Predict the structure.
Amino acid sequence: MRRVLVMIGAVCVAYAVWHVAMARSTTIRLEPAGYQLTYSIAWGLGMEERFALKKLGAIWPSQSSAWTEIWKKPYNSGMVAYVSDDGKTYYFGTGYGLHFFQPEQETYWTTCHKGSIPKRKPFAERLSFFGSEPHDEELDPGAPRLFEYVQANEASGAIPSSPPASRYYAGLKYLGRFGLVATNGRGRGEEVRFVPAGTAMEPRLGLQFSCG
């Protein structure tokens, strides 16, 4: 029995080490909140993503999401970041839920309740819920969807000091998006990148989600 337990433990440790070795991540600073935001993708038996928030200077993250399986991998990976006009609440959108972070209160929570999605602007109300129908492209030509790859020519960088107002959500400023970088058809991708606002267009309705 002891030998079996040792073998099981060794397998678990080996898988954890492999999982870490197969992970890719990128980190940005949330100013003036005083936090770092790290987005990660890991390849293992499947493909997973997560993000973590850490105070500047701290050793360990103070808040983080769980590792979450990516649907239809790798095409449903990615996360978009916004902040409220007053700077008190950050919004992180993924395909599987909406995440909220309030640095002053040091609180983080996530929801699957679609009523929690911020109010859409009148223009955005004319788009379908996920912004993916054919007529959406006619109304909003050229805007990427959240789940598209980051293109190799889209540069990474820091959040702008004066981020622009969201094109789709009232009372929010668009900060940028995280995503897997396209490899021109060579495999599933291996680099994770943050593309700040002003470098590429805001993803269309990036805070819409489905929890299954």
